[in-house]
């Protein structure tokens, strides 16, 4: 099996301009621990050319894998021989990629002609940064754009600070896009920035009340280098890039999974020491400048009360721990808050989110921001996995951006109000 996939992956790389044509995303239903171990072994084979969108954790969670067209027969035959059931959830990845790119090109032209910004569209880094400048200019008494440092490739890292004044007030942190390919998280954060500003301007509850007590720090693009890389190819070859873009010990494999690089149980379960792996943790804790920049700001501030992060996909709302199945000391309260926030989210469009700890709900994840923040006394930590549950995966159509953002806002709004009402 490994030899077949290695040969197919090599052939596909030679013809990368049509790499995704005929690629499928398979949803695999592991029915036993033996199935899980077989899938884990397959995932560790980084030369296979398989792209695991979700991971083999338990029989309760499906495993989604993007399989190159040239490897489909071998993979399906392998699964059948091992009696591992599967279904096809995306029949042709290329079709979705082409539609996404065509929509972006069309939207960019419309925005250029109308000098407007369309929240129901995906945008590149430059456009997002320009949007931030425009928003700050329109709400200069409320918002400042703060440069917290540069990336590995020397791009600026910006946050939007929403504040009604005061030094180092209690604060709420929200970030998006630490995994580059999760475009719906960036687009949601863009919408959220505008919504917070608008609600404050129009005195729409509860934003003015929240901002009278706390500041909000919003980082729309936590991994600028990786995000640029997902946009940079004339083919769609790099659309599914997850990591940063730093050099590693293997010259053929770039990037670190920035959400495995935090100084919290670094090197534990759910993180790889292989530079070619999607979840490569990096050479040491907080070795990556992007993580260090965020950590330094939060530690220097010293008064963050909540840390929330936006990812995709699977529709989950989670809390600590990521590295361990042990209950966090505040587990009961965190679960209740997350459950109520999930109900608030559901009230908009009926979207159902699963609630639980990261370890038990999605996968073990050591070196993640969840445990770093919680271990440093930031009690109210929540991680969102936004839409959908697999029909589109990382290729969620742009016409779902606003609905996704709006329902996420309902949940965030509940959490922020709760944090304000429960000081510690």
Automatic annotation (TrEMBL):
PROSITE patterns for this protein: CARBOXYPEPT_ZN_1 (PS00132), CARBOXYPEPT_ZN_2 (PS00133), PEPTIDASE_M14 (PS52035)
Which Pfam families does this entry report, sorted A to Z?
A: Peptidase_M14 (PF00246), Propep_M14 (PF02244)
**Does this entry carry the keyword Secreted?**
yes
The Peptidase M14 domain covers which part of the protein? 121-419
Q: Which GO terms describe its molecular function?
A: metallocarboxypeptidase activity; zinc ion binding
Q: Which cofactor does it need?
A: Zn(2+)
Protein keywords: Carboxypeptidase, Disulfide bond, Hydrolase, Metal-binding, Metalloprotease, Protease, Secreted, Signal, Zinc
Q: What is its main location?
A: secreted
Q: Where does the signal peptide begin and end?
A: 1-16
Give the protein family: Belongs to the peptidase M14 family.
This protein's name: Carboxypeptidase A2-like
The primary gene name is LOC107732822
């Amino acid at each position: 099996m490994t030899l077949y996939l290695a040969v197919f992956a090599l052939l596909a790389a030679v013809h990368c301009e049509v790499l995704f044509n005929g690629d499928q995303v398979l949803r695999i239903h592991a029915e036993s621990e033996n199935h899980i171990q077989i899938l884990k072994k397959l995932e560790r084979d980084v030369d296979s050319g398989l792209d695991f969108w979700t991971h083999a954790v338990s029989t309760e969670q499906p495993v989604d894998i993007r399989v190159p067209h040239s490897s489909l027969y071998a993979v399906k035959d392998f699964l059948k021989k091992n009696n591992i059931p599967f279904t096809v959830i995306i029949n042709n990845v290329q079709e979705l990629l082409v539609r996404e790119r065509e929509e972006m090109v069309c939207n960019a032209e419309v925005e250029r002609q109308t000098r407007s910004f369309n929240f129901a569209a995906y945008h590149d880094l430059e456009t997002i940064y320009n949007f931030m400048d425009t928003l700050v200019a329109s709400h200069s008494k409320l918002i400042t754009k703060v440069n917290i440092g540069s990336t590995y490739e020397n791009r600026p890292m910006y946050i939007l600070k929403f504040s009604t004044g005061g030094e180092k007030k209690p604060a709420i942190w929200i970030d998006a896009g630490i995994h580059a390919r999760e475009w719906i998280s960036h687009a949601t954060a863009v919408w959220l920035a505008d919504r917070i500003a608008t609600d404050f301007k129009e005195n729409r509850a509860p934003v003015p009340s929240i901002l009278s007590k706390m500041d909000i720090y919003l980082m729309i693009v936590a991994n600028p280098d990786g995000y640029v890389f997902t946009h940079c190819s004339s083919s769609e070859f790099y659309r599914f890039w997850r990591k940063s873009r730093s050099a590693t010990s293997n010259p053929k494999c770039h990037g670190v999974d920035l959400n495995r690089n935090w100084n919290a149980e670094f090197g534990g379960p759910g993180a790889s020491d292989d530079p070619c792996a999607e979840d490569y943790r990096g050479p040491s804790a907080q070795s990556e400048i992007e993580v260090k920049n965020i950590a330094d700001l939060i530690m220097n501030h010293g008064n963050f009360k909540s840390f929330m992060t936006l990812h995709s996909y699977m529709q989950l709302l989670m809390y600590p721990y990521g590295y361990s199945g042990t209950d966090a000391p505040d587990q009961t309260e965190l679960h209740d808050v997350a459950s109520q926030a999930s109900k608030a989210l559901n009230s908009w469009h009926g979207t159902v989110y699963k609630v639980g700890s990261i370890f038990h709900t999605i996968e073990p994840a050591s070196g993640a921001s969840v445990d770093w923040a919680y271990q440093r006394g930031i009690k109210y930590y929540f991680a969102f996995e936004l839409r959908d549950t697999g029909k589109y995966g990382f290729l969620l159509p742009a016409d779902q951006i606003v609905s996704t953002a709006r329902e996420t806002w309902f949940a965030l709004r509940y959490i922020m109000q709760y944090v304000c009402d429960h000081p510690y």
